[in-house]
Design brief:
Number of helices: 22
Radius of gyration: 50 Å
Number of strands: 22
Largest sheet: 7 strands, mixed
Bound molecules: adenosine-5'-diphosphate
Shape: elongated
Helix content: 40-55%
Distance between the termini: 185 Å
Strand content: 15-25%
């Protein structure tokens, strides 16, 4: 039986079960809710984590970009400045700070555009920048200028393009400006260099074509004279006319040779092959030779040439006398060429210093001719340059002389320079080092047989320079000498002191000239004095008149110490005490009995040597090439006393012929003097001749004195 309690229980259980189910449902719901809650929580965490991550990423990216930006700005070669909307500096690139020696940005923080850049930039640029700051928004887009600035303030200007550009915010309002300095120095320099190179190239093309035109003129003119005069001589029956033509041919030929020598020298200089030789020479004699060559032209232009030799320069020097002659001759002939008639030319020489037997000489050639402008002077020593081509057309010349002289002087450890003003003459000066010579004999000595203390000499010349120079020479040889500047003064002094033993009287003087003074002396003093007339004129032209006036002798001007001393010795009846021995004159039959073998393939060259040597009576056999010469020597090994050997010949050249001759069995053939006679005149050509076994060398065209000198030397 079911009891109520049981029923109740059941109900309770049922109710409990119901309750349980409900709780379970709630639990499930709670669990679901919890689960949901939990998921939500987790998401929030993730979200916040994600947020943190994102922030980090944004931060990293930002600082990376900032870093890149800084790197970029600091390594950027341009100088960058950022100004804020008030025009105050907000940022600069490192390059700007470095360039301006600013150690930290703090040093310039807050400075305005004008404060910072005002001292450096032009007002024009500053004003344009002001406009950019003010009106950037209103359309003043940017300002760009070029300026040369010494930013570092170290005295070195660089070229910049300076650009100022406005910066805008999102609202299109001006937020400041950015100024960039673009350094274009290298571009400008490269452009300038390219421009300079182009100009130089153009100039050198122009100078070279002018030079070629000029050279063609310089070569054609004498050739024209040679051809023309030869034709005239051939046609003319008159012997005097023929002589006249031959003289002209001779002058034109030597001029042509000069031009060719200049070109050869210049090409040697270009190839760096100009070298000097070392020989001992007499300095005064060298100058005398130069003057004797130049004096013809000086006389033609009635110019006055005065030479002064410093008594401290040793008589003998060791160096390349031929090259020294070349430089002095070039300067002197220019002085004559560019000085008008009746002008004056001085050749002055002095010893600058002597150390350990090395003498530094200074030589100056001064004229009162047309002069050279400053602009022209700067170009003169370069090859092919002439002060002005129109001048050169008037005066002729290759424009190479000074460039060659400069190189020669440099090889002599010297330098060359010019002092001149247009229209006021020019002085060319150079220094050169020479070794003191070892030869002891002086240039001139007074005879020991005379009692010099009692000999009185008077010099009369209107040129104070000549009088002074004479006094200097007289003093150096202990000779008493009175000098006066004119005839009147001379007469007064003779009246006062009595007659002199020797008079040196200038021919042309104002008021009373030399001839008149001689007549006065002869009329007013005893006859036993000697009168020497001094002049740069040809003695032949005044000899007759001078002798009639009582003149005993002649001293050519310009004066040289040795010629004065020789003249004094001669006046007193003493022979010329100087050993001359320089120029060999041709004596008839001097080489009679001797034999030459002339090896030369060109007929005209054989003819010249045979004709020139004819008076010496030397026997001459000819061979037309090296092979023939060797065979002739094989046949008659001892016949020849000397061989003149051309180099370039068909069959066998001169070098090979010499080697073959030296290899012959005959002892004579191994020793017979062989002298090269060739147009190959470079130093290495001469060395090649010597290496082949020759003894000596004569250059072509032949200087007949040189040929004779070799004959005297070897025979
Ligand atoms: P060249 O005389 O053969 O033309 P140089 O080299 O000797 O060549 O001289 C170059 C130029 O220098 C001459 O053409 C001339 O314009 C100028 N010159 C040289 N010497 C003098 C001088 N004494 N007076 C004026 N101009 C001179």
């Amino acid at each position: 039986m079911e009891t109520p309690v049981n029923k109740n229980m059941e109900e309770i259980i049922e109710a409990l079960q119901e309750e349980n189910k409900k709780l379970l449902r709630e639990n499930r719901k709670l669990a679901r809710e919890l689960k949901h809650e939990m998921t939500l929580n987790k998401n929030t965490e993730i979200l916040s984590e994600a947020k943190i991550n994102l922030n980090r990423i944004i931060y990293d990216e930002k600082s990376r970009l900032e870093k890149y930006m800084n790197l970029l700005l600091n390594n950027c070669p341009y100088l960058i400045l950022l100004f804020d909307s008030e025009g105050k500096i907000a940022f600069t690139s490192n390059s700007y700070l470095l360039k301006n020696n600013i150690t930290t940005f703090a040093m310039i923080r807050g400075k305005s555009y004008r404060e910072l850049l005002g001292p450096l930039l032009k007002e024009e640029i500053l004003q344009q920048a002001d406009l950019v700051f003010k009106n950037g928004a209103e359309g003043c887009k940017y300002a760009s200028f070029k300026q040369d600035v010494d930013l570092e303030q170290e005295g070195y200007i660089r070229h910049y393009i300076i650009e100022t550009t406005p910066m805008f915010n999102e609202a299109e309002q001006t937020e400041g400006a950015i100024t960039v300095f673009y350094d274009i120095t290298e571009i400008v320099r490269a452009k300038n260099e390219a421009e300079y190179a182009r100009k130089i190239a153009e100039q050198s093309v122009r100078v070279k074509s002018e030079f070629l035109a000029n050279m063609s003129h310089e070569i054609r003119t004498p050739i024209n004279a040679i051809i023309g005069m030869t034709s005239i001589a051939k046609l003319s029956p008159d012997i005097e006319k023929k002589d006249y033509c031959l003289d002209k041919v001779e002058i034109a030929s030597s001029h042509l040779l000069g031009v060719i020598n200049d070109i050869l020298d210049m090409s040697k200089i270009d190839a760096n092959k100009l070298e000097l030789s070392n020989v001992e020479f007499n300095f005064e004699k060298m100058l005398q030779k130069i003057v004797s060559v130049i004096s013809l032209r000086v006389e033609e232009k009635h110019q006055d040439l005065v030479v002064h030799i410093d008594k401290h320069i040793p008589n003998f020097l060791i160096g390349d006398d031929k090259r020294l002659v070349q430089v002095i001759t070039n300067l002197l002939s220019n002085a004559v060429k560019f000085t008008s008639e009746y002008g004056s030319i001085y050749l002055d020489t002095f010893l600058v210093i002597e150390e350990d037997n090395i003498c530094t000489l200074q030589i100056e050639v001064c004229d009162n001719g047309i002069g050279i402008s400053q602009e022209q002077q700067s170009r003169l020593f370069s090859s092919f340059e002439q002060a002005d081509s129109s001048t050169s057309r008037k005066f002729g010349g290759t424009g190479l002389g000074l460039a060659i002289s400069k190189r020669i002087v440099e090889l002599m450890n010297g330098r060359i320079w010019i002092r001149s003003e247009l229209g006021k003459g020019a002085t060319f000066a150079f220094t050169a080092q020479m070794e003191r010579g070892r030869a002891a004999n002086p240039n001139g000595i007074l005879s020991v047989s005379a009692n010099w203390e009692n000999i009185r000499v008077m010099v009369v010349d209107d040129s104070a320079v000549t009088c002074e120079y004479f006094e200097e020479i007289a003093e150096s040889i202990d000779l008493q000498c009175d000098t006066v500047l004119g005839g009147g003064e001379a007469c007064a002094l003779i009246d006062k002191n009595g007659a002199y033993d020797i008079y040196f009287i200038d021919w042309q003087m104002p008021d009373m000239d030399g001839i008149e003074l001689c007549k006065w002396i002869r009329g007013n003093t005893p006859d036993n004095s000697m009168i020497i007339m001094m002049s740069s004129a040809e003695w032949g032209a005044i000899e007759k008149e001078a002798k009639q006036a009582g003149v005993n002798g002649f001293l050519p001007k310009p004066l040289f110490p040795s010629s004065i001393i020789d003249c004094i010795n001669e006046c007193l009846g003493f022979d010329n005490l100087m050993a001359d021995g320089e120029k060999q004159s041709i004596e008839a039959e001097v080489f009679k009995g001797y034999h030459i073998l002339l090896v030369e393939d060109v007929e005209i060259n054989r003819e010249i040597v045979i004709s020139l040597l004819e008076p010496t009576q030397i026997g001459i056999d000819c061979a037309e090439n090296g092979l023939e010469a060797v065979n002739m020597l094989k046949e008659a090994p001892d016949k020849y006393d000397i061989i003149f050997m051309d180099i370039q010949m068909p069959e066998m050249d001169g070098y090979e012929a010499t080697r073959n001759i030296r290899a012959l069995e005959s002892g004579h053939a191994r020793q017979v003097p062989i002298v090269a006679m060739t147009a190959n005149v470079f130093r290495e050509d001469i060395e090649k001749c010597l290496a082949a076994g020759m003894n000596d060398h004569i250059g072509k065209p032949m200087d007949f004195d040189e040929v004779l000198a070799k004959l005297y030397k070897y025979l």
